[in-house]
Amino acid sequence: PKMPGDVNTDGVVKIDDVVMLNRLLGEDSTLRITPQGIINAECDGVDGLSADDATTILKYLAKIIDSLSA
Q1: Residue 1: its pLDDT value, please?
Q2: C-alpha to C-alpha distance for 8 and 34, rounded to whole angstroms
Q3: What is the DSSP letter of 27?
Q4: DSSP helix/strand/coil, 8
Q5: Helix spans in the chain (H)
Q6: DSSP class of residue 66?
Q7: Which one of 1, 19, 23, 45 has the lowest number of neighbouring Cβ atoms within 10 Å?
Q8: For residue 70, what are the contacts with CB-CB under 8 A and spacing of at least 6?
Q9: Rg (Cα) of the chain, in Å, rounded?
Q10: Residue 28's pLDDT is what?
Q11: For residue range 8-54, what is the model confidence (pLDDT) as tens digits?
C-alpha cells in the first residue's frame, strides 16, 4: 500500500526518505529504490517527482504541515 513520503519503504517517514529522494532526483546510479518507493516519493499532490516532494517531506517532519498527499 502507498505510504506517502516513505521513499525507502521501511514503514516510517523520516529524514532518510528525503536523502533517498534527493539521490533519486540527482540520478545517483548507485541508488537502489523499489517501485513502491518511487510511488511513495510522490507526496506533494502534483504529478511527477521534483524537489518539491522533498521539501514537502521536510515540512511534514518539521510539523509545518500535518499530512502528505496520497
Answers
A1: 83
A2: 8
A3: T
A4: coil
A5: 15-25, 35-41, 51-61
A6: S
A7: 1
A8: 2, 4, 43
A9: 11
A10: 95
A11: 999 999 999 999 999 999 999 999 999 999 999 999 999 999 999 99
Which residue in 61, 54, 20 sits closest to 37, CA to CA?
20
Count Cβ atoms within 10 A of the Cβ of residue 47 and give its class: 0-12 exposed, 13-18 middle, 19 or more buried: exposed
Q: What are phi and psi of 60, to 5 degrees?
A: -65, -45
Nearest to 68, CA basis, from 58, 9, 33: 58
Q: What is the pLDDT of residue 34?
A: 97
pLDDT classification of 69: cutoffs 50, 70, 90: confident
Q: Is 9 exposed, middle or buried (0-12, 13-18, 19+ CB in 10 A)?
A: middle
